[in-house]
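Need tokens for this chain, all 249 residues.
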Amino acid sequence: MESLLKDALGHDASQLAAAERQRLLSRLLSRLAHEIRNPLGSLDVHVQLLEEDLVRASPPVSPAITSRLGIIRAELHRLDNIVRQFLTLAGPSSVSVQPVAIADTLEYVQRLLSADATAREITLTTTIAPDVPELSADPGQLAQALVNLVINAIQAIEHGGRITLSARVDAGGVACIEVQDTGPGVEPERRHAIFEPFFTTKPDGNGLGLWIVQQIATAHGGTISVLNAAGGGAVFSLRLPIARGGKIS
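Here are the structure tokens for all 249 residues:
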């Protein structure tokens, strides 16, 4: 993160507070995403015009050329969708809070990802302590954070294993939602780096999933951390404050 900010700002940003670095980086990457969308839109239009020209061409062009243009067009749309998702989720600076039943959110995430887990022979379960109250949170952002964490766990396990979503209340009025897996765990030197934007150990990963989780946690006044379980695997802990009156402190 510091290297990206140093390149953009022209000075060392390591002395800035973590929250300020996150805000600066969010603004920087949001602007970058907007700049990327402009040439993507122009390329899409010109590919469409080229396809129309080739339809009228005489003699007809080779089917291979038409196929290649179709691939280019599809890839442009894929890139645009990636940028669109990034703009929506990469840096949520505000939350629209309402009472959220954590049990319902965990159940939703389980239903959403159970088919993918089952296909990989991964058991996906949820447990929730009986004293967990409703949480004041943005329901969409909370669900997105947990979806990202479970997808990360599924990819870490790859095939065969177990993922457990759990929720409890810790001391100090903090809700702790954990995603524990039986994958290889996280190397100690990477425990902070995995929350940096674009950091990934997966060949097909974009390195944004866990960063988005961190952005959502920060926007709610909470934290996200990871440790390795005693029996193996990783435990991601999303901690969000619970205050009296149903408002986030």
